[in-house]
Design goal:
Helix 1 packs across helix 2. 86% of the residues lie in helices and 0% in strands. The protein starts with a helix and ends with a helix. By secondary structure, the protein is an all-alpha fold. The protein is built from two helices and no strands. The chain has one domain.
Length: 57
């Protein structure tokens, strides 16, 4: 069971006042954020490789 502070933060983030309404929205946002972070990690790796190649020339 999440602590009260976490629940209140989740309510503020989702704009919902009860757990039954904010949980699905938070889950959907979590999925989006995970995909965003995965994309950013790939992009960082690509850019690091590009910089490494440029440093060799």
């Amino acid at each position: 069971m999440p602590d009260d502070a976490f629940v209140e933060k989740l309510k503020r983030q989702t704009g919902s006042s009860t757990g039954s309404r904010h949980t699905p929205k938070a889950a959907a946002e979590y999925d989006f954020l995970v995909k965003t972070v995965e994309w950013q990690k790939r992009e960082i790796a690509r850019l690091e490789e590009l910089v490494a190649v440029r440093d060799q020339t």
